[in-house]
Amino acid sequence: MPELLPETRRALLHCLATAQVQGRAPSIAAAVVRDGEQAWADSRGSDTGRDVQYRIGSISKTFVAVLVLRLRDEGLISLGDPLGTYLPGGGDFLLRDLLGHTAGLASEPPGPWWERTDGTGRTELLGTDVPSMRGLHHYSNPGFALLGAMVAHLRGADWGTVLRREILEPLGLHRTTLLPAVPHALGWSVHPWADVLMPEPLTDTGRMAPAGQIWSTVDDLSRFAQFLLHGDDRVLGADSLAQMRTPYSASEADDWNSSYGLGMQLLRRDERLLSGHTGGMPGFAATLWTSPDDDVATVLLTNTTSGVPVGGVAADLLTIVADREPRIPAPWTPLPALEPALLGLAGPWYWGASPYALRPAAGGWLELTSLSGPRRVRMRPAGDGEWIGTSDYFNGERLRLVRDESGTITHFDLGTFVFTRQPYAPASAIPGGVDPGGWRGQV
After folding, report:
1. Which residues contact 118 (CB under 8 A, 6 or more apart)?
2. Strand partners, 278
3. Cis peptide before 381 (omega within 30 of 0)
4. 314 within 8 A of 279, measured Cβ to Cβ
5. Burial level of 43, CB count in 10 A (0-12/13-18/19+)?
6. What is the CB neighbour count within 10 angstroms for residue 42?
């Protein structure tokens, strides 16, 4: 375990202990992941331990999203297709809209309160759609239940089996299950005005399981957080995980502090963008946050229905480590090899008069960075002098080199954006043309 400074460890413990007391939680457990390993773990209250299971609620949705992106990366689905293409009776809801909660589905399934009732006999998932919310963020538990059903249908096995085979076993998450396995915490509700408890039911939610059924531990979620930070080619690559944490929908039109990617919640804490998910089920609350820029993640688990602001406390734990012990960058090293043609692309390019820098990267990748704004995109090679954007505004867009009759590169086209070696170069194919008078002084 990488050692944290004593004052950092004390600050983490103080934060955790304060949350347990102020939230009146029967128990609370947390961990910090840094530089690829669990750097700190502790707990407060009764019946706690790093091997004790807690219900993690909607963090389950991130597991579902990983399974869906695996299908996409295997070429079995397209996120732009309707669910009904792959799941009989699934309707016209686009897969990417289901992942981003913009499909216009109702928040809850029809029938009794699904989180507190036995769902093994539940036959309905879809419920009522909300057409007025299509294209807008409207959190939907049935949407992820349907995605889980699609995964099961395409894999030819129940969702839990697919989850175990494709994520849990490769990542070594042996204490992560759909139903509780001892030792596990009991779920409690704390009276709002008295220090007394009432047990919450431990239900099997049946077909709604992909929305919030999973049980896990601090240690297992630490491993899952490390995977979300760096990827694992046995499960899902880093570029697909980066797509999952790219903002897809905002929770409110004027709220820039929170958004939602593809199966991941996003939270802006000061200048730091966190990605992960919160979760809540009767008797339990949980959060997993990652900060890829800091290579830090936090996990927080508690066994009370309400009282502990788990998202904020987990963000506080992450901030304590990231601010007190900032990431030390890896040493700079030259590329192992570089094609001469790629070196010829390096340097300044201009979209109109806006300057950009293009840099070759390892594996034939390119990085295009705005020199006058925050835009930055990494592009993977697609062969035949083309690259495909994997992040930011140009995610999925194709970069194409354009040559003249002599074979000399005159410009490149990135999703119809024309980049030239000089700002508004008159000899290049600038859409709309360039004024024949060119650049001029005072007018």
Report:
1. 203, 204, 206
2. 287
3. no
4. no
5. buried
6. 17
Q: Tokens for 266, please give them.
A: 């996003």
- Cα–Cα distance, 216 to 281 (Å, whole number): 13
Residues in the chain, total: 443
Handedness of CA 35, 38, 42, 43 (dihedral sign): positive
**Level-2 CATH architecture, domain 6-324:** 3-Layer(aba) Sandwich (3.40)
Q: How far apart are CA 29 and CA 43, in angstroms?
A: 4
Assess contact for 394 and 377: CB atoms under 8 A.
Answer: yes
Instruction: Give, in degrees to the nearest 5, the angle at Cα 210 between 228 and 87.
Output: 110
pLDDT exceeds cutoff 80 at 132:
no
What does the pLDDT look like over 279-321, one tens digit per residue?
Answer: 999 999 999 999 999 999 999 999 999 999 999 999 999 999 9
Q: How many CA atoms lie within 13 A of 192 on its CB side?
A: 1
Q: Which CATH architecture has domain 340-420?
A: Beta Barrel (2.40)
Distance from C-alpha of 50 to C-alpha of 43, rounded to nearest angstrom: 8
Q: What is the token pair recorded at 367?
A: 């990085």
- Domain boundaries along the sequence of the chain: 6-324, 340-420
Using the CB atoms, write b or e for 340-365: b if 16+ within 10 Å.
eebeebeeebbbeeeebebebeeebb
The kind and range of the H/E element at 265 are: strand 265-269
- Token pair, residue 420, equals 């030239």
Would you state the torsion angle of the CA atoms of residues 90, 262, 240, 207, taken in this order, to the nearest 10 degrees?
-50
Q: What is the pLDDT of residues 328-357, one digit of tens each?
A: 888 999 998 888 889 999 999 999 899 999
Q: Give residue-wise pLDDT tens across range 180-225.
A: 999 999 999 999 999 999 999 888 888 899 999 999 999 999 999 9
Query: What pLDDT, on a 0 to 100 scale, did the predictor assign at position 254?
Result: 47
Helices marked H in 119-214 — which ranges? 141-155, 159-163, 169-171
Q: How far is 119 from 105, CA to CA, in rounded Å?
A: 19
Given a contact cutoff of 8 angstroms between Cβ atoms, the answer to whether 293 and 275 are in contact is: no
Task: Please tell me the distance from the alpha carbon of residue 93 to that of residue 212, in angstroms, as a whole number.
Answer: 21
Cα–Cα distance list, 63 to 69, 179, 374 (Å): 10, 16, 30
CA distance 177 to 163: 9
The model's pTM is 0.86
The pLDDT of residue 252: 47
For residue 439, give every residue at least 6 positions away whose Cβ sits within 8 Å of its Cβ, in sequence order, or none.
424
H or E element: which one contains 312?
Answer: helix 310-324
